[in-house]
Sequence to fold (169 residues):
Amino acid sequence: MLARVTGVPGRPHIAAVLMERNPGRFETMQQVFDEYLGAGKKAHMARPFSLTVAQAIALVKNAGGVPVLAHPGVYSGIDPIAAVRNAHAAGLEGVEVFYPYGGPDGGRWVARIEALARELGLLQSGGTDFHGRAGESVDVGDVGLTPRQFAALKTGWQQLRSKRPAEKV
Fold:
């Protein structure tokens, strides 16, 4: 598996190998996660540490970055709107709005998160969440920001960065 991965290997790469080596055993990658790789499943490994949302936001800001929450509409087991609101209360400064949410509610998620970002004054980002997996339905650049949206993000990012103290090296 490691020879086939560029970047950091993750559970999706493991799932792809399991599907490859067990033809007919799994119909979808989701089935591999549901049976083996999902939280609490047979092959799931808990992380040895974790950060709270507030700790992660502080860490990003202390490093000179702008904390942005990625694709909140895909989180399971939580209310994505509440998650964005809670993260905003902890100092979140942006949210990924434009993302290829699948299914019939995909477009509604984009609209809901975009409206929430405007309401909270959050920067709006976008992307494909491309991980280089074979068979993915999106590719780098398929989803993202228009030139106007990118300019707004860049301006907001520069304004936030200019308010931060100089980074300590």
